[in-house]
Specification:
By secondary structure, the protein is α+β, with helices and mostly antiparallel strands. The chain is built from three helices and two strands. The chain has one domain. The protein has helices at residues 10-20, 73-76, 89-104, and strands at 60-63, 84-87. The structure holds zinc ion (2 copies).
């Protein structure tokens, strides 16, 4: 592992984090309504995970639209900073899992019959 921020270039990552105020921008896309954070995840970059042993929070710059979270890394990295959002790893993983599940489901099962 290098110190380079994940997924996107350092400049893009900085721009996204500045817009996000270095705080996860998830507003429930992960399935957690984040009521404690006022409807937005309260994990901040450099903060600590609430659970023991979680380590330091490292926010990711990833597509703001959960539907785009399943894009291959090189395509996600090509998105402009305006289409990216700050995600903490737990929200990112959960939102992506949700998007994958939605994608895997047949869009119109009736059409098969
Ligand atoms: Zn989060
Ligand atoms: Zn979340």
């Amino acid at each position: 592992m290098t110190a380079r921020p994940p997924l996107v270039g350092a400049a893009t990552w900085q721009a996204v984090m500045q817009t996000a105020n270095h705080r996860c921008q998830c507003a429930g896309q992960c399935g957690d309504p984040h009521t404690r954070g006022g409807g937005r995840c309260d994990r901040a970059h450099g903060g600590h995970h609430h659970r023991h042993g979680g380590g330091t929070v490292r926010l990711l710059a990833a597509p703001a639209d959960p539907a785009h979270l399943t894009l291959p890394a090189h395509r996600a990295a090509a998105l402009p900073a305006g289409e990216l959002a700050a995600w903490c790893p737990p929200c990112h993983d959960a939102a992506r899992r949700t998007a994958r599940t939605a994608e895997a489901a047949p869009p119109d099962a009736d059409a098969l019959f």
